[in-house]
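Troubleshooting log. The previous run stalled partway through. Resubmitting the same two chains, unchanged.
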Amino acid sequence: MPVLAIPFSLSSGVQVQAQITISRPRLLHLRQTRQSIPPPVSVIAILDTGAERTCVDPAVIARLNLPNRTSGFAAAPGVSTGPAIFGGASFSLTYEAGLVILHPVTKPPSNLIVHELEVDELPLAQFGIEAVIGRDVLASCVLVYNGPAGSVTLAY
Amino acid sequence: MIMRLPPGHPAWPTEFPEKLAPLRTEIETYYRELPRLLEEGEEGRYAVVKGNTVHRAWDTYRDALQYGYDKFGMEQFLVQVVDGRFLDTMSKWFGPLPELNQEIT
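Second attempt completed without errors. Output:
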């Protein structure tokens, strides 16, 4: 089981290097039909147990031309102006994507790869990040937050 | 905190969101076919919808996507979990279902 050790600070949160990709079914289809495949987009992401789902900045979604696949909505207080019911929530659309959390060890390959993922579009760049990794991904991980040591371990 | 708005939540838009316009036909088809899908025990599964037709429901998002790409390639299609709570939410977008109209009259 790969373990990723992540130092963090109170101000930055638990940041990881990740890649947003197209989903595996989309990748396979593009390969089979000999169409061009958009390269993964490298992002700085934070691990957020307060996020129900993984969210991605609109600029990343646009670069990968991710398809909107469902009619769901997410709410994130404070991100934008919106209904007062959530203290200014922002509605977001849901897109089909893939995710890779990069691990420095490459042999054996130790990245955490999620081939298919429904991600919500949220304007995150204003916070200096491009993705929030939520409980949908963390559900398959063991996350240990060691506050006094200023480090987190993520095993998967 | 970031949360999904469950269908039926009062914060759901009461009018069809313009950003979903490319999927409007598929979403309306899903809404129209939802009672049948629920009756057939598909709740919790992922329906694949293209145009005016629901093309089966699958156990996982992955299976539904795979089927969609096999059948429709890069064309637009909808993958939506079968959830009865959408009946109320989507009735605000598309109006009551014909069956419900008949019951009312």
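Takeaways: The two ends of chain A are 6 Å apart (CA to CA). The helical segments of chain A are 24-32, 58-64, 135-138.
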